[in-house]
Amino acid sequence: MKTKPYQPDHSALGYSVGVTLDRFIKMKQDDFPFASGELSQILRDIALASKIVNREINRAGLSNIGGAFGNTNVQGEEQQKLDVVANIRFSRALTKGGEVCAIVSEEDDEVIDLQNSSGKYVVAMDPLDGSSNIDVNISIGTIFSIYRRVTPVGSPIQPEDIMQPGNKQVAAGYVLYGSSTMLVYTTGKGVNGFTYEQSLGEFFLSHPNICAPKDGKIYSINEGLNSQISEGIKNYITSCKERDFSARYIGSLVADFHRNLLKGGIYIYPSTAKAPEGKLRLLYEANSLAFIAEQAGASASDGRNRILDIQPTSLHQRTPLYIGSTVMVEEAEGHLKEATV
Ligand code: P6P
Fold first, then answer.
1. Is residue 4 part of a domain?
2. Quick one: pLDDT at residue 325?
3. pTM of the model
């Protein structure tokens, strides 16, 4: 039979649609020796849920899905309707995907046991962070961490499956619902970003191998907290101003983190008089973004200790967070240390 090699002339196309998230996950699956497709399935589950949540966010202003839900979550924060909807969407997708045995969510007081005797993975997530910005059309995000359970598969979930330090994460990522919707994740082999093409319903690789600038000139902190924060951090903020750095604070962690990751910068939510442990949660905000940060060549600490080395002691525990360009994080830590000696 006469054949010829596949060497098409693509010039007629003018452009290539690029690598879809699905194809990328499959291409990189071999990076993950013991995943055998399980971890890939969880990433697909998260991507699917994010597409649905993206659609609901985009329609919030036109439907009755905006606004407050009328409850407060375990954090004592007023739940937005989209908080609840996003929590349901991600939990359902992970349940149906069949690879997860337990979920820790900002929106659920307790660990959700999926009663899945074959599930090898635990997912910790903030289904929708920054939800107070929904009604004013400011970028918001989903944050997630993925761990392997440490007790035998099929046995009852134990605290040690949940209370794992961030350095045990097998994957982490975030979805940024912004001017475009992006999914950024790592499995410990670098950081890659995908942009959602609404018309095709696909995420396409748009930011391969994200590397954070070692230094930067953007600082993100709520300066309204100045009366409650340490002299050391006040001194650091002053030093940023003296060097004409730019203050950029959206009030949405994922958006501030993503900008600083790409352009160089630092996000700080410090210990305050009202919140000595800080505001952000270790398991499903700080750990997830710290894994991404370090994989992109940046840093994340609580002001003294590497975030990923903190041993969790409670499900929704909070931590101060200094995250971004390594030089800036080290400078901020230096100012903090000076003020305490
Ligand atoms: P504040 C949103 O509630 C959030 O968790 C982060 O996304 C954001 O960076 C921070 O809190 C904003 O907190 O106290 O500055 O309003």
1. no
2. 98
3. 0.93
